[in-house]
Amino acid sequence: MDSLKKELEEELKLSTDDLRSHAWYHGPIGREGAEALLERDGDFLVRDTASSPGDYVLSCYWRDEPMHFKIIRVVLRPKKGYSRELFQFEGDRFDNIPALVRFHVGGRHPVSQASGAVVYHPITRSLPIRVISERQAERPDSNRSSNSALDRVGVESQPDRSKRLSFNSSHMDTLHVTNTLLRSGSQPANLENLGRRPSIQSAQSESNLRTGAPHSCQSEAVGPAPISPVFRTGSEPLISPSALRHTRPSHPGGGVTLRGSDGQLHPRAPPKPFRVSTFFPGTPPNRHRDDPYDELVIQVPESKKRGHVDRLRAEEKWQSRARLTETSFSFLEAQESGELPGLPIDGQVQEEEEDSHFQRPQVETVSCFRLDQFESLLLPDNNRPLDPTVLMALKELFTRSNAMTTALHILSVDCQVARIVGVTEDQKRMMGVGSGLELVTLSHGQQLRQDLLERHHLLSLGVAIDILGCTGTVGQRATVLHKVILLAQALRDHAHNLYAFSAVMKALEMPQVVRLERTWRALRRNHTESAVMFEKNLKPFMNALNDGDDSVVQGPLAVPYLVPLLRLMEGEEGEHTERGCQLLYNTLQAARNAALHAPQYQEHAHSLLTGDWEPIPELLEGFRTEFALRLFWGQTGAAADKEKRYDKFDKILTVLSNKLEPSEEFSPEL
């Protein structure tokens, strides 16, 4: 026992992605053995399925009865030589079964919508998998109900071969299977008989035969005609909208109701239903009454108004299910070749009517920053670059506003530019999506990506001008630096705007600002808490975002960190490092999350902007991109080439920095 205990401990120490490292995995334990361990609602375990090697079953107890759900294995083959396995029940897919179980146990998500079964109490094993496998091998018949059922049929009843089997007879004779090779219900036997007329025995075996009991229902003798030559085996999950579970009733005379999943009746298993109902709503179900596993219906979300992204998502989900538990979808291959066969789909006409209103998204070629239509409350006509009177007015506005108020004003303008709030129906039709967070991930969102990159850089330049434009004492510049750090904290923790937060941090890490040795020293002396927060909190947080680590983000967001994606898709990404592939993956994953969670971001941003705060028109204008363009380069220079404008302004910042502290570069450290 000590050796077994040590072996079990070694198994549980394996990687968490390995099934053997989880005590709720019981290996090749049979159905009856699993049901004996389940006692109360919420109990569950995962076991192998003997009829289909490589597949797994979740056995659980819910509402006073055991249930068995076969885990659906989805094999993705995006290109030759590469494949990826995903696992699911009805909803989300996961890379491994432990992640799937954690999702349903931790979040109390039901395994299936029809049953409502929730699992939360694991039944742990006390022996290593090797011992369980050896014990199961000693009694192989314990795992297959088909063998035990066949033995009962052979012992309790003997066939009368002198009688002629007939469809019209009111009392059917018992059926004795002599070929032992046809006893497994997990495989479609005798596929060479496809297209041939079935014999009398095989025809009778496809009906609901009862040994030793009269045939009580004539309608059950004739099953529905199969619509596909692909057989359904008892070991595969039945994907059907039906929600009823049926058990085998007992009959007098020692008879047993036999079913196709038992595998001992006939050389030809019951026909498998063609699995199109999950992809085409309204398809009539083809449910076999006595399936060995509880039903799973893959949930396909539907939208009332199908936009461009909705159509792409539906097509991707449809094509990604090319193989579900080793089932071949021939109609998918036909669709790829342009020869999709006509299928009886009830909802097809309605779907085509909805698609008739689809409009192709428009590709924007003009920036949303319209200088010719911009009317300013602060700038005079034909203003000069960096007008001192305008800069003084801005400083007074920032002095009267605290960091939280300023952060909400920046959030308001950012949400308008990124099209997170205030998106009209016309804009949605033009974009083909519901928000700019989805548009920036698509090819026709190039103009919006360029506008967001432009605004991000201008926000950084504005913060740098606020610091370097302070020509007072070193203590006054340290105070300005302190307020900028508080603004960065408010953008992250109060406005939940990581886009603007990264712009402020970019300004604080500019070489022209970093080299101000005396200013940073005064900050550490006069505003120690701000200096510590910047070095120990804000900078590591920003570095984690740049590395693609989303785990540092806590709580809801209004505007996610979009800059790496924008730069990647516009070809402005920096030099590649050893972690280049991982960074690329993290960036693309963050883009996917931003598009998928766009409605949550929109809702949270709307709640923040409709809360208890009063917008100041002059302060809102001070954060508009058109205002920054005219303030930095003047009325005429704002329309110049972007690269030339940036290069010229960088030289101006260098001159201002050298004028404030004419010394060598200094990197502030605590």
From TrEMBL:
GO biological process: small GTPase-mediated signal transduction
Gene3D superfamilies xref list: Ras guanine-nucleotide exchange factors catalytic domain, SH2 domain
UniProt entry tagged with the keyword Glycosyltransferase: no
SUPFAM superfamilies linked: Ras GEF, SH2 domain
GO terms of molecular function: guanyl-nucleotide exchange factor activity; phosphotyrosine residue binding
Domain Ras-GEF: 402-663
Highest taxon in the source lineage: Eukaryota
Bias type Polar residues, positions: 165-190, 199-210
Claim: Transport is one of the keywords in the record: no
Record key words, sorted: Guanine-nucleotide releasing factor, SH2 domain
SMART domains linked to this entry: RasGEF, SH2
Chain residue ranges for the region called Disordered: 134-292
InterPro entries per the UniProt record, alphabetical: Ras_GEF_dom_sf, RASGEF_cat_dom, RASGEF_cat_dom_sf, SH2, SH2-Ras-GEF_adapter, SH2_dom_sf, SH2_SHEP1/BCAR3/NSP1
Domain SH2: 24-123
Name of this chain's protein: Breast cancer anti-estrogen resistance protein 3 homolog isoform X1
